[in-house]
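Raw record, unedited: SGNH/GDSL hydrolase family protein
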Amino acid sequence: MGRGTDQGTRYGRRRARAALAVLTAAALGVGVAGCDAVGGDSPAPSGSASKRAKTAPAWDTSPASVAAVGDSITRGFDACAVLSDCPEVSWATGSSAKVDSLAVRLLGKADAAEHSWNYAVTGARMADLTGQVTRAAKRKPELVAVMAGANDACRSTTSAMTPVADFRAQFEEAMATLRKKLPKAQVYVSSIPDLKRLWSQGRTNPLGKQVWKLGICPSMLGDADSLDSAATLRRNTVRDRVEDYNEVLREVCAKDRRCRTDDGAVHAFRFGTDQLSHWDWFHPSVDGQARLAEIAYRAVTAKAP
């Protein structure tokens, strides 16, 4: 009888302690919720919530300045005249109303004229990106727009294409340089267009094929009308290398909390004849530049990558 009483007493104490723990937890829960509901002068939440707030990637969908780096596409090459740059129609920083560039969409036309800069160079390869980034960093842009890599595949032969490992090392070097000089800058990285798609669209135009013979992307565009096994293998080798490059761009960018890619949107875009230069039928036309600007703007202003 006495043992039963002791057991009952201990059980009662355990229940009391359990009830107290539940009430305490509930009170703490109300306290935390109350802090969250208070205005801006309230103290920051503590514990794991605070840690998440500190480590959450910060992405500003309305940066105040833009610098562009890359190659001929970003320079608007062959969009206005044959074998000439036309930066005013650049998808990244151009002033043309027909393009409505990324910079104009983000900053407005007046501010874009003062706070956007184009450091891309026609013919540039990934190995040149570090130098471009170094020059762009002097302007302290809040967003750096990158489109590079097509010329690493557009070589005299497929064997002359930049090896994937070298491409990765060069892009990592450029990103490391950018991050050292601009620790808080955001980076938008465009994928490389599908060069084989561009060949398939342009090969039906006699004028375009004559311009191709001047040396535009011979690894893909050389012997444009040939459909034999050797030509097919060559073009597929270039296509595959571009896909490998795009994977590198995605992987390296993913390691940087302030970097975003277009998730392959430019590569997947099906350029038609209206979106290709009517001089070389390979580079983007003014309309094609506008499509690139649309893709970039969607990526930069998305709430989540």
